[in-house]
Design goal:
- The complex is a heterodimer of chains A (217) and B (558).
- Chain A folds into 2 domains: 133 residues, Rossmann fold; 58 residues, Arc Repressor Mutant, subunit A (Orthogonal Bundle).
- Chain A has 11 helices and 5 strands; from the N terminus they run αβαβααβαβαβααααα.
- Chain A has a 5-stranded parallel sheet, with helices on both faces.
- Chain A is elongated and about 75 Å long.
- Chain B contains 15 helices and 18 strands.
- In chain B, helix 3 runs parallel beside helix 4 and helix 13 packs antiparallel against helix 14.
- Chain B starts with a helix and ends with a helix.
- The chains are: A alpha/beta (217), B alpha/beta (558).
- At the A-B interface, helix 2 and helix 6 of A face helix 10, helix 11 and helix 15 of B.
Chain lengths: 217, 558
């Protein structure tokens, strides 16, 4: 899971409202230009590179790219290697592989590593856009979960040590009375802690609190 | 012996005196003894005995009137005995009568002397008779000598003839023996020999040959046509043709492999080598000798090896086709992708022109269709390949080494597979594809050989790979090595250091090994030359079993 140092409510929200950021890595000039045109039609922010290094060097795009359309065979670092490299990092864009070869073992490995799709060249615009849309939806879900998680983590950081202790016991299913007994507190005190926790965590019900916390662990 | 010598011997002549009167014996002995050796007897019977014994008398003086046996009877007896018939006899008689004289001469007496004895007449007559006898003896002797000489010469001639005959016989015997020895050697070698006398059209076959050619063992000689008739119908004309070439003198050596027709069974392959042993003065071959052996087993092995090679070659062609299709697909798919992409953009820009939009969409569909064709071609080549099974690499490598050893174009190549132990774990793969890889790598090594090297060596070795669960195989040559050019990637398609190379051999190897989940790379041989290495995962390790299914999904996801 992601660390607490991630900014909350950052520029992601604003950017998403404008355009999705999509990267393209393809060494064939004509194919790269065609991809750029097709993706551009979907009102996306498209950044195209001729090599893996070109993409890696563009730290700005790298940090906010939601989807990467990646050719399998590239000069220098191959598409597969770039994917592997990205997997070791905190943020991984949703990957759509495109290939002119039938690189079966590579396709298998890429799908195992979480690539969204594996398109064979040549493809219809519709196929590409569907795959990219799918990737963006997946990425959006992932981002939402990631952001919710980050929010939860940030809110948890606002709890006092006593509230943390009470929360732990509530999460394993103890009632206020049982928590009070275990902690040697008055039931009324525990219920006050619990109300504070619900407020700080922006949880309406105990069930919501439990779901929020379990997904951040 | 000369006559004079006989004369000299005159004095040594022996004279027998026969007379019943002792005083007569005494007179004659006294008279003759100074000159001759004298024997004397008073009995006719005794006289015959003395005359027949040695020394034989040269002359007998015989008294006619004797008791018991008279002179006529003794003379008749002497003449009747071949030993004594030639001894001259002088009758000595008291009677002075013509009748006695006539009778005596008729009986064969040489002369006669009448009593009273007169010494000069006796000596003269005796001397004459002795000389005559000597002369006669010499003549007889000469005659005997000549006869003996003739006999000797005749005998000598005969001896020569006999010796010649004997020698001829011995030579023939030797020849027979040497032929028998040869035949024995040939037969004990398991080979079959035949010997054809072209003039007589007599074909002599050893027992082994009769057996080989399915001919009855009983007859010893037969016409050559009998042998040719045994040839398989498809080969008969060729066999006859080769024989004809020898007969007309086109060639004197014959080397052929042909099939022998066998009722109720598969034909037998025969390898025959023959040559003309003797020729007539006009050059016409008279005797052709040939050795044959059963080549069925070898042919079967060759056919098997040929089938295997053909299978490998066929797989090689399929892999090559796959690689070509793959390379083609890649190269064509790039522009097709661009065409489809640009057309999609174009479609947006002509959205308000339905006619143009339709055309642009048609362009996209045709680009996609072209791509499908390329993929299908590749997919077809892939599907023709054989399935994967658990394999012993040792067996695969030994098999490839065997074919290369059997390949006559690689006669001077030594394939060393001592570095491949039977202990290597099994791998999971396609035997024919892996054979293709090994064959390509070995052939590559052979073709990289230094010129003027008499015997090329290629070593194949196997060991556990650096990563667990991997086997590493190396193919080492001591050839020219790879170009020093850093950009020279031997595994790229259409890259070749050979003038006529297509540059796909190593690409195919690379593709096959990668397809097996392994790696192929090359390093220089420190001793000069090149080492190709490849790894393969052991059976039961990380081969994606559903790889072919994904291939299907990828190819036809429209």
């Amino acid at each position: 899971m992601f660390g607490m140092n991630m900014p909350i409510g950052n520029s992601f929200m604003k950017n998403q409202a404008i355009k999705d950021c999509v990267g393209v890595v393809e060494d064939d000039d004509a194919v790269r230009e065609a991809l750029r045109l097709m993706l551009g039609a979907l009102n996306m922010e498209v950044h195209a590179y001729a090599s893996a290094d070109g993409f890696l060097d563009d730290t700005d795009v790298r940090s906010r790219c939601a989807c990467l359309v990646l050719d399998v065979r590239l000069p220098g670092i191959s598409g597969i290697e770039l994917h592997k490299q990205l997997l070791t990092q905190k943020r991984v864009p949703a990957i759509v592989f495109i290939t002119g070869h039938g690189d079966i073992p590579m396709a298998v490995e890429a799908m195992r590593n979480g690539a969204v799709d594996f398109l064979q060249k040549p493809f219809r615009e519709q196929q590409l856009l569907e795959s990219v849309q799918k990737a963006l939806v997946l990425e959006r879900h992932a981002r939402k979960a990631r952001e919710e998680c980050e929010t939860t983590v940030a809110r948890l950081a606002c709890l006092t040590p006593k509230e943390h202790e009470v929360l732990e016991k509530l999460l394993v299913g103890l009632r206020s009375k049982e928590v009070a007994a275990e902690m040697g507190l008055a039931t009324k005190t525990v219920e006050q802690h619990r109300a504070n926790i619900m407020h700080k965590m922006h949880a309406a019900t105990l069930a919501e609190l439990i779901s929020m916390c379990s997904s951040s662990r | 012996m000369a006559l004079q010598t006989y004369q000299a011997k005159l004095f040594a002549a022996t004279i027998l005196i026969v007379d019943d009167m002792p005083e007569n014996l005494s007179v004659l002995a006294t008279l003759l003894q100074p000159t001759y050796q004298v024997l004397a007897t008073h009995s006719g019977k005794r006289a015959l005995e003395i005359a027949a014994s040695t020394p034989m008398p040269d002359l007998i003086l015989l008294d006619v009137m004797m008791p018991e046996m008279d002179g006529y009877a003794v003379l008749a007896q002497l003449k009747a005995n071949p030993t004594t018939e030639d001894i001259p006899v002088i009758f000595v008689t008291a009677m002075d009568a013509d009748e006695d004289e006539r009778r005596g001469l008729e009986l064969g007496a040489a002369d006669y002397i009448t009593k009273p004895l007169r010494p000069p007449i006796i000596l003269a007559r005796v001397r004459t008779q002795i000389e005559l006898k000597r002369a006669r003896d010499w003549m007889l002797d000469q005659n005997a000598f000549l006869t003996a000489e003739v006999a000797r010469r005749v005998a000598e001639n005969e001896l020569i003839n006999i010796r010649e005959l004997a020698e001829r016989n011995r030579a023939e015997k030797d020849l027979r023996e040497s032929e028998m020895r040869w035949q024995f050697a040939v037969e004990s070698h398991g080979d079959a020999m035949w010997d054809w006398d072209a003039d007589k059209n007599e074909l002599f076959l050893t027992a082994a040959a009769k057996e080989l050619f399915d001919l009855p063992v009983t007859d010893s000689k037969r016409p050559i046509a009998d042998l040719i008739a045994q040839a398989h119908a498809d080969d008969r004309a060729a066999v006859q043709g080769q024989l004809d070439d020898i007969i007309v003198g086109k060639t004197s050596e014959w080397s052929a492999e042909w099939r022998l027709s066998r009722p109720g069974g598969p034909p037998r392959w025969i390898a025959t080598r023959g040559r003309v042993m003797t020729r007539a003065a006009d050059g016409r071959p008279q005797r052709i000798v040939s050795i044959s052996h059963d080549a069925t087993q070898r042919k079967r092995r060759e056919a098997e090896a040929g089938r295997q090679r053909e299978l490998v070659a066929q797989q090689g062609r399929l892999v090559l086709l796959g690689e070509l299709a793959s390379a083609l697909a890649h190269e064509i798919n790039q522009p097709l992708t661009a065409i489809a992409g640009f057309s999609a953009e174009c479609a947006r820009r002509v959205a308000d022109n339905p006619g143009a939009l339709e055309l642009v969409r048609a362009i996209v569909e045709q680009a996609i269709r072209a791509g499908e064709i390329a993929w299908r071609m590749r997919g077809f080549a892939r599907r023709q390949r054989l399935g994967r099974t658990a394999l012993s690499l040792h067996e695969v490598i030994a098999g490839v080494a065997k074919w290369i050893r059997m390949d006559s174009s690689y006669l001077d190549v030594v394939i060393d597979i001592t570095g491949v132990g039977g202990h290597l774990p099994q791998i999971y793969g396609d035997r024919v594809e892996l054979e293709q890889v090994l064959f390509n790598l070995v052939r590559n090594g052979i073709e990289a050989g230094q010129p003027n090297v008499k015997e090329q060596r290629i070593a194949i070795a196997g060991c556990p790979g650096q990563q667990s669960g991997e086997i590493e195989i190396s193919v080492t040559d001591w050839g020219r090595g790879l170009p020093a050019d850093a950009d020279f990637d031997v595994f790229q398609p259409f890259t070749s250091s050979k003038e006529l190379g297509l540059g796909l051999g190593l690409t195919i190897c690379f593709s096959i090994i990668e397809g097996h989940g392994g790696h192929l790379w090359v390093t220089p041989n420190p001793a000069g030359g090149t080492i190709f290495h490849f790894t393969l995962p052991q059976a039961g390790s990380t081969v994606p079993p559903h790889a072919e299914n994904i291939q299907g999904n990828l190819s036809y996801r429209q």
